[in-house]
Amino acid sequence: MSSHHVVKAKQEPALIILDLHNFDEEYLGQILEWSPTLLVSAAAYDAVDSLGIKIDVVLGSAEATQGDVIKLDVQISDIASALSYLLLEGYPAANIINSEVLPIDSDIYDAINLVWFCSDAKIYMVKSGFSV
């Protein structure tokens, strides 16, 4: 007996890749298993594209070789622009891959669930009002 799962749009967290430096490709494959909406910085575009991964949105001015990629102008920073886009599109959560956690507006933490994946850490951002 097989198990079939239907993934609804925006059910899985979107994935923002800012930097793949020292990130395990096997772990990346696990994160991509459910085909999340993928936003990639211009700096990481070539590295992600070379892995054969379908990119949905490129942040900034990368020369996109994939045909149907949305190019998103970067207003303040890659991460701020990516999160603004996801909030406008109604995404409830996002995973972020980068070599470090970047500062972002604290109001965003209450608007979207975030998990940062760095080369040696996984950091959950907890919404205000959390209690044990």
Shape: globular
What is the C-alpha radius of gyration, as a whole number of Å? Answer: 15 Å
Mean pLDDT level: 86
Number of helices: 4
Work out the strand percent.
15-25%
Low-confidence stretches: none
| Broad structural category | alpha/beta
Largest beta-sheet details: 7 strands, mixed
Order of helices and strands: EHEHEEHEHEE
Which strand order spans the largest sheet, edge to edge or round the barrel?
4-3-2-1-5-6-7
> Total strand count, please?
7
The separation of the N and C termini measures 40 Å
**Roughly how much helix do the residues carry, as a percent range?**
25-40%
Ordered list of secondary-structure elements with their pairings:
Layout lengths: L13 E4 L7 H7 L6 E4 H9 L6 E3 L10 E3 L5 H12 L3 E5 L8 H6 L1 E6 L2 E5 L7
Parallel strand pairs: 1-2, 1-5, 2-3, 3-4, 5-6
Antiparallel strand pairs: 6-7
What's this model, at a glance?
This protein is an alpha/beta fold and 132 residues long. The protein has helices spanning 25-31, 42-50, 78-89, 106-111, and strands spanning 14-17, 38-41, 57-59, 70-72, 93-97, 113-118, 121-125. Strand 2 (38-41), helix 2 and strand 3 form a beta-alpha-beta unit.
Explain what this protein looks like in three dimensions.
This protein is α/β, with parallel strands linked by helices and 132 residues long. It is 26% helix and 23% strand. The protein has 4 helices and 7 strands. The chain has helices at 25-31, 42-50, 78-89, 106-111, and strands at residues 14-17, 38-41, 57-59, 70-72, 93-97, 113-118, 121-125. It has a 7-stranded mixed beta sheet with strand order 4-3-2-1-5-6-7. Strand 2, helix 2 and strand 3 (57-59) form a beta-alpha-beta unit. The longest helix is centred in the middle third of the chain and has 12 residues, at 78-89. The mean pLDDT is 86.
